[in-house]
User: Which sequence fits this backbone?
């Protein structure tokens, strides 16, 4: 059962969806694993892919304007981070 926190009919909080959970797990694993290892690279890939999926879903189907802005910010973060890593 999904529970939303509402104030005046406006959703201000809700439980995270699965792409965001995967992104957070990937981020936590990348902090724990030694840098340069294959497992670290896999954890970072899970983080970036999951965050991209979450951000796209929020941008396209967010329940309100704030959530859509969060999605746009997430996609922008991923794009900037990946372009910095490619240089």
Assistant:
């Amino acid at each position: 059962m999904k529970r939303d926190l509402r104030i005046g009919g406006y959703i201000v909080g809700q439980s995270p969806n699965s792409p965001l959970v995967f992104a957070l797990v990937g981020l936590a694993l990348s902090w724990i694993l030694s840098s340069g290892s294959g497992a670290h690279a896999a954890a970072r890939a899970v983080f970036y892919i999951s965050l991209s999926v979450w951000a796209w879903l929020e941008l396209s189907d967010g329940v309100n304007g704030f959530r859509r802005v969060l999605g746009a910010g997430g996609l922008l973060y991923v794009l900037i981070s990946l372009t910095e890593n490619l240089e």
Notes: The mean pLDDT is 90.
